[in-house]
Design a protein that fits this description.
Strand content: 15-25%
Structural class: alpha/beta
Largest sheet: 4 strands, antiparallel
Mean pLDDT: 92
Shape: globular
Number of strands: 29
Helix content: 40-55%
Number of helices: 28
Distance between the termini: 53 Å
Strand order of the largest sheet: 6-5-14-16
């Protein structure tokens, strides 16, 4: 194997595109619809067709790719099902902005033309996110890519809607919905973002219709009083016990409305009197239903006051608020105003403040569906990792409300309902009926609303596999094995997939749900453009390479903890890649191939027995960690084994056999070194696909892609516990000598003499057999090994196990110079400590500085204390000896 086969350094930009094309061209991501292998399937959380790769995508898809690559190497028939979501509101907004830039809008071009324009946009830009996922190394079966608006999935959507309607689980009714006046559509509760907002409590007097006095009602939305139909108080509130049958006058409109009694009212909140506006508040809507109150809608779909708002008709809702407040002041009915902070709902897309409105919408009755989905998790048919998310899942399922699935936009699955213009009959059908089912008229008009985007996404695990047809893929891969997702769509998506999968397929959609945390900046703050702390995955991959980025995400993905990402961490793992690269380069340059035949007897040295045993243990531990979704543990095990055990210890010790051994030993050692390197690359491949493939293809006897190789199995390697014990002893002695060299400032080039005091002769024999490793790796001249040997004069001691190693210092160091050096170092640290302690004793600093800065200063003091303690210990040592 020639030296020219590996460059001095690894350049990711030169190899990533090459290997991704190779994998695709050789169909290495392709799943088999029928196979003797055990199936393993993951459906990708479909990114929005409008999307570009962000940190959430990067983490989510890296973890999925680790699972899929690992399972392929374990011999499974793996399908990673890809696709994109049509993202109704987001995509419509993008195309509407484009039309606005051309001086027109969707209403001017008409619905059919607008939908045509959206499809054109999707064709032109919709593949951007897919190409970026490929850049990340995602090994999806791209031949099966789906889109939530493709013909097959659209048919599945119609089938589900009509089936649910026929079962009485879909209905149309009046209900309070979250309305976005900007997007002109209803939003599900989960699509509303609540932002803490500085607002006011307005205390308004509602005069009694009969007699003197008034009730005071506190509200944050005075404009809605125009739609009030009652004032409610708690029946147990002593203040209002004399009010049964009373009426108050609606301020400004002087319209009588009843005082009603309802236990929903919180006696301790505000004045204990609650204005009831059934058409503009979900809780008021429920109270109104209980008391048969009229529903008066005074705000329209544009966020403006309608004809029922009387003199305020035509005003914007916020303009109306200001006018009403002025009018209340004039009439003396505004008692007081108090500052108040509360969470206000905003549209998750355009950030406009939502307006609760009474509206006729289509709903899914989810109670019966939710019950089965909850039971599946309780029974363990679907397991949620980490398990603490189960409680959140159950809480939401137990308090679930009917799902408003209609959206007043044009891009999406148009609801398969046709209204008869002759008799008003509602016709729900999979395809447009030839005539009305009631009067047979062909004057049918289709519902203009489309379905909520999450409706089609809820079918994703089975619709992408061919349902409602009896497809082989459906039989092979459903239920899928795992779902990897963020906690933010546990309810948006995961719960709904559970409900639909169980209802329509009779089984859960996935066996495991792994919920990962958020990717935050190095200080644990959420990334945002306004803070300027966003890290762009594409920029990071350009700078450090995809493998370093992926490995960093995996190494930081501890269950239940946010990923605190920094470029320094990514750079650190880029160094790790260099270490792997250099170790492979060393093997190719120094291991002679062809001298060792498969049937030859191997000659195992202690380091050989140790590394092969450790390789088996680590392989088992990495498998266990990935199977348990402990990605950080798996990455950490790979890092520790490859960098420290393989590179720092084993390769250094193997040089003795490779450089100085006889022919048989050299050939045997070379074979073992290559075996371990190949296995190490396999362990790393799921995390670092590109660099491992590049090295794999340069090694002799590797055959095809590393993707098709078998993941290391503990049963394939030695299991020699004695080698572990013996090697621990040897490494302990070498580490002890190295530590003394570092602490005593012994120059690297100087060789030392040592005395090792052993308590067990057997351990002494092990060390004697491996003297050459001690001399080479610890830079030692003479070694004396004895039991009960006295501590030599002017020597430094380290303890390893039950043994001691003494490094002779006389003639090696100038003790007086060492004392000077140590005193100087102590003085410098004392000065640093004084500065830090001053800060910590400054009350102003403690009150004003951010918590993380105070924590940093405290940590610095702790580290300085440890350093000064060590230096003082060494100084005391040198003060007891003379040159």
């Amino acid at each position: 194997m020639g030296k020219e086969l590996m460059d001095k350094g690894y350049e990711p930009g030169e190899v990533e595109d090459k290997w991704y094309k190779y994998w695709e061209e050789n169909n290495l991501f392709k799943a088999e619809a029928r196979s003797d292998k055990d199936p393993y399937c993951i459906v990708i959380p479909p990114p929005n067709v409008t999307g570009t790769l962000h940190m959430g995508h990067a983490l989510n898809n890296t973890l999925q790719d680790i699972l899929c690559r690992y399972k392929r190497m374990k011999g499974y028939n793996v399908l990673w099902q890809p696709g994109t979501d049509h993202a109704g509101i987001a995509t419509q907004n993008v195309v509407e902005r484009d039309l606005a830039s051309k001086g027109t809008d969707r209403h001017a071009v008409g619905r059919d033309k607008f939908v045509e324009l959206v499809w054109e946009w999707r064709k032109k830009y919709g593949g951007l996110i897919i190409n970026q996922l490929k850049r990340l190394g995602c090994s999806c079966d791209w031949s099966r890519e789906r889109f939530t608006m493709d013909e097959g999935l659209s048919r599945a959507v119609r089938e589900v809607f009509v089936s649910l309607y026929d079962e009485g689980l879909v209905y149309r009714g009046d209900y309070i919905i979250n309305w976005c006046p900007r997007c002109h559509t209803a939003l599900a509760d989960l699509e509303v973002e609540h932002h803490e907002t500085d607002s006011f409590f307005y205390y308004i007097r509602y005069p009694f219709e009969q007699g003197k006095g008034h009730l005071v009602v506190a509200t944050t939305r005075p404009e809605t009083l125009l739609g009030d139909t009652a004032v409610a108080v708690n029946p147990e509130d002593e203040r209002y016990k004399d009010l049964p049958g009373s009426h108050v006058l609606l301020p400004l409109l002087n319209k009588p409305i009843p005082v009603i009694f309802d236990k929903y009212v919180d006696k301790g909140f505000g004045t204990g009197a609650l204005k009831i506006t059934p058409a503009h508040d979900p809780n008021d809507f429920e109270i109104g239903n209980r008391h048969q109150l009229e529903r008066i809608k005074v705000i329209d779909e544009n966020g403006a006051m309608n004809e029922l708002a009387g003199p305020y008709k035509g005003m914007d809702r916020f303009e109306c608020r200001e006018k009403i407040l002025k009018d209340l002041e004039k009439t003396g009915q505004l008692e007081k105003v108090e500052a108040y902070q509360h969470a206000v709902g905003h549209c998750y897309r355009c950030k406009t403040m939502i307006e609760p409105l009474l509206s006729k919408q289509w709903f899914v009755k989810v109670g019966p569906l939710a019950k089965a989905a909850s039971q599946a998790v309780r029974d363990g048919r679907t397991r949620i990792h980490p398990a603490n998310w189960e409680g959140v899942y159950f809480q939401w399922m137990n308090n679930i409300k009917d799902w408003c699935v209609s959206r007043q936009i044009w891009w999406g699955h148009r609801i398969p309902v046709w209204y008869c213009e002759e008799c008003g009959e509602v016709n729900v059908a999979r395809e447009k009926p030839a005539g009305c089912r009631s009067c047979r008229s062909d004057s049918l008009v289709q519902e203009t609303d489309v379905l909520d985007t999450w409706f089609s996404s809820a079918l994703w695990p089975f619709s992408t596999l061919g349902w409602p047809d009896a497809a082989d893929e459906l039989e092979t891969f459903y239920p899928t094995a795992a779902l990897v997702t963020g906690f933010d769509i546990l309810f948006f998506w995961v719960a709904r997939m559970m409900m639909m999968g169980i209802h329509f397929k009779g089984d859960v959609p996935f066996r495991d749900v792994y919920i990962h945390a958020l990717v935050k900046d190095a200080e644990g703050k959420k990334m945002s453009k306004s803070k300027g702390n966003v890290i762009d995955p594409l920029v990071v991959m350009d700078e450090f390479g995809t493998d370093a980025f992926r490995f960093t995400l995996a190494a930081l993905a501890a269950q239940g903890r946010d990923v605190k990402l920094s470029e320094e961490r990514i750079l650190g793992y880029r160094h790790f890649i260099n270490k792997v690269w250099n170790s492979a380069r060393f093997v190719l340059m120094n291991v002679t191939t062809g001298e060792y035949e498969e049937g030859d007897t191997r000659i195992y040295t202690l380091p050989d027995r140790w590394i092969l045993t450790r390789l088996g243990q680590v392989s088992e531990d990495v498998s266990s960690a990935i199977d348990g979704y402990r990605f950080n543990d798996a990455a950490g095990l790979c890092y520790q084994f490859i960098w420290h055990e393989f590179c720092d210890w084993y390769l250094e010790m193997a040089k003795e056999s490779l450089y100085g051994g006889d022919g048989a030993l050299k050939a045997s050692s070379g074979a073992i070194v290559q075996e371990v390197l190949k296995a190490a690359l396999k362990l790393l491949h799921p995390f670092m696909p590109f660099v491992t493939e590049e090295i794999w293809q340069k090694l002799p006897g590797t055959g095809d892609s590393i993707m098709t190789s078998k993941f290391p199995d503990a049963s394939h390697f030695l299991n020699d516990e004695d080698a572990i014990m013996e090697m621990d002893l040897l490494m302990g002695a070498i580490t002890g000598i190295r530590n003394i060299r570092g602490e005593m400032n012994i120059p690297p080039a100087k060789r030392v003499n040592v005395v090792i005091d052993v308590t067990d002769e057997k351990e002494g024999d092990i060390l004697r057999l491996n003297l050459s490793h001690i001399q080479t790796l610890a830079k030692v001249n003479e070694v004396s090994i004895d039991s009960g040997a006295p501590k030599p004069e002017a020597s430094a001691t380290a303890v390893f196990g039950r043994n001691q190693v003494h490094v002779l210092l006389k003639g090696l160091l100038d003790f007086e110079e060492e004392r000077k050096r140590l005193r100087k170092g102590i003085k410098k640290i004392e000065k640093d400590m004084e500065v830090s302690n001053k800060k910590l004793s400054n009350q102003g600093f403690l009150e004003k500085a951010p918590a993380e800065i105070i924590a940093e200063v405290k940590e610095k003091v702790e580290i300085l204390n440890l350093k000064i303690e060590k230096l003082n210990q060494n100084l005391r040592f040198f003060e007891t000896i003379d040159n």
